[in-house]
Automatic annotation (TrEMBL):
The name this protein goes by in its record: Aldo/keto reductase family protein
NADP listed as a keyword: yes
Span list, region Disordered: 317-338
Residue stretches in coiled coil: none
Domain NADP-dependent oxidoreductase: 17-315
Record keyword Cell cycle present: no
Length: 338
């Protein structure tokens, strides 16, 4: 069963394996399979679910609501996000303006069929909206009981510090950041993690398996398996391309004996690795089939000894991305409109 961790400097606990439905629900898998996978997550002790209004252009929130129907609301932790455009991409249909944030929360609550979300997240940083406007809107949403806590995604250390200061001034908690993080993508370690630890902000990390590359199924010098994420544009093929070179794939193959010696599968090793970071509260995992979750949750509670961590660093260190500037590249400098 999955263990729990506190999210940021709060009394709020989340399952350290959190179910995310970014590229699965209403996109990669049929609704019946999505519902079955969510039910399997619940059976395995996962009670924390992460989505966003932009996933499948709002449809992912609807599918998640269907899958959670009839569950005790108080026993669930439901996260969603706002920033990216949905619908016609009008001038106010994106970003973190007060208007878009309030339109976003009202739409998400309706689609998720809940009165509140546990965590409402700024999906990116908005360079076109004053940060004071954004944080005031979040403060009002918290006071109105539409969200209990506020988080962000892919913010830099400086943006986190400024946002945290405003949240404190406005009387609410900024408790989380949701960045990409894996043994191959370590860009948050230099600045984001130490700043977050200082401020009482946790990481909810996405792609702990580097889009599946750390599963070891992609082999150097060989084409990607048919039906895999690397061959499926709907399944995030764009995001995996940065890892699809022979140097990276050869380095990943060195992890196989390390995982075997630790008594873990390759996916379990990858998820357990991110959970060794004390600033990480949860690893986001998705699944297109229920049995995939059965493997993933076995990473919960695993403690990797120092020799294993050293061996992983030796294998992947030469090919891992560590440049902190990569975080800043995640947020568009201008809004995407129609």
């Amino acid at each position: 069963m999955v263990t729990y961790r506190y999210l940021g400097n709060s009394g709020f606990k989340v399952s350290e394996i959190t179910y995310g439905n970014w590229i699965t629900h209403a996109s990669q898998v049929e609704n019946d399979a999505a519902v079955a996978t969510v039910h399997k997550a619940l059976d395995l002790g996962i009670t924390t679910f992460d989505t966003a209004d932009v996933y499948a252009n709002t449809a992912a929130e609807v599918v998640l609501a269907q899958a959670l129907k009839g569950q005790r609301r108080e026993g669930l932790e439901i996260f969603t996000k706002v920033y990216f455009p949905i619908g016609p991409k009008g001038p106010n249909d994106t970003g973190l303006s007060r208007k878009h944030i309030f339109d976003g929360i009202h739409g998400s609550l309706k689609r998720l069929d809940v009165d509140y979300v546990d965590l409402y997240q700024a999906h990116r940083y908005d360079y076109e909206t004053p940060l004071e406007e954004t944080m005031q809107a979040f403060a009002d949403i918290v006071r109105q009981g539409k969200a209990l806590y506020i988080g962000v995604s892919e913010w830099t250390a400086e943006q986190l510090r400024a946002g945290h200061a405003l949240a404190t001034e406005l009387g609410f908690q900024l408790i989380s950041n949701q960045p990409q993080y894996s043994a191959l993508w370590r860009v948050i370690e230099g600045a984001v993690v130490p700043t977050s630890a200082e401020l009482g902000i946790s990481q909810i990390v996405w792609s702990p398996m580097a889009q599946g590359v750390l599963s070891g199924k992609y082999l150097p010098g060989q084409p990607a398996p048919a039906g895999s994420r690397a061959t499926d544009e709907k399944a995030g093929a764009f995001f995996i391309q940065r890892f699809m070179n022979d140097d990276v794939l050869a380095a990943v193959q060195q992890l196989k004996p390390i995982a075997a010696e630790a008594g873990l599968t390759m996916p379990q090793l990858a998820i357990a690795w991110v959970l060794q970071n004390p600033n990480v509260a949860a690893a986001l995992v998705g699944a297109s089939r229920p049995e995939q979750l059965e493997d993933s949750v076995k990473a919960s509670g695993v403690v990797l000894d120092a020799d294993v961590m050293t061996a992983i660093d030796a294998a992947l260190g030469p090919v891992a991305e560590t440049d902190p500037a990569k975080t800043e590249e995640s947020s568009p400098r201008a809004r995407v409109t129609g």
